[in-house]
Amino acid sequence: MGDLTGNAESTKSTARGGRRFEASKVKSFLASDFFTADYEVVAGDASELAYLGGVHLGAVDVLRHEAVGVHRGHRRLQHYRQDHIDDFLISVPVRGRTTVMQAKSSIAIEAGTFIISATAKPITFTSESANSHSTFQTYHVKVSGSMLRVRVPQIDLYCHHPIKIDNGAGEIMTAMFALAIKQGAELTLTQARNFGGMVIDAIANATRDAPELVSFHPDSRQTAYARIRDEAGHFIACNLSNPALDPALVAKHCGISVRHLHAAYAATAQTLGSVIKETRLKGCRMALQSAELRERTVFEIAMRWGFSDPAYFSRAYKAMFGVSPRADRDRA
Length: 332
Description:
Layout: E1 3-5, H1 8-14, H2 23-33, E2 38-43, E3 49-57, E4 60-67, E5 70-75, H3 77-83, E6 88-95, E7 97-102, E8 105-110, E9 113-118, E10 123-128, E11 136-143, H4 145-151, H5 155-158, E12 163-164, H6 168-183, H7 189-208, H8 220-238, H9 247-254, H10 258-266, H11 272-288, H12 298-304, H13 310-321, H14 325-331
Antiparallel strand pairs: 1-3, 2-5, 3-4, 4-11, 5-10, 6-9, 6-11, 7-8, 7-10, 9-12
């Protein structure tokens, strides 16, 4: 993703025949790097576009929009029919005001607040500066719908509700947007994808615990179970090399009974034991296929991921991947 930058003086001087900045250029820029939408300058000098640009981070696109006056973007039904994007858009005004209109409801937000919108529905964004001498600045972050739903299953219920950035998670999220714009172009493709995943995690963290959204939780018990799984998953990821890792140890860390822990996983397609085993096996496979670890024996790698019985490890590995650990390594 590139950028369109300038200010009133420089833009006018570079435009042939004194031509003002054309909103159609912004429309073309959005269509190529973000999504299809109409764009118009409602009030102010159209040439005073201070900055419009962003960066692509795998499943995440971060856009910064800065200008003087009132600028408006329309994503209409025909645009969705054209590109079929079913993602989420996180809008964070830094200066000025951003108004989001969707489903005949209009929400105005200012600095210290963000809002989530669904791109699969018609939507209108209006950004306006406080006065004719200042610019508005807004971050719009497009996130893969499926990847955000995995992290926040209730995310569709949270759309079009202002969320305050008054906690550490919200501040970190906003700081990551700014850092992505500043340094994102310096990342390799793999680094960009990894950082994009971190951005999605930051959005999820700022959203899940927002007090404004508590009333939208469809099932308080399922929400509590989701939190338990999240805490258990983090503990498991940090202790996979411990052969003693089992449901009792995880339950002790979470401060709940083993029965309660199993109940939290009963609503999913996996048991806690299978989560631990499959995560370990995936880690082993990644290590076995790594050229940097060719000097390590198969069982040394298995032990590093918490397997103490080589026969059991081989059976479990073949059952999951359809090939023995040694054959998988040789094939890689």
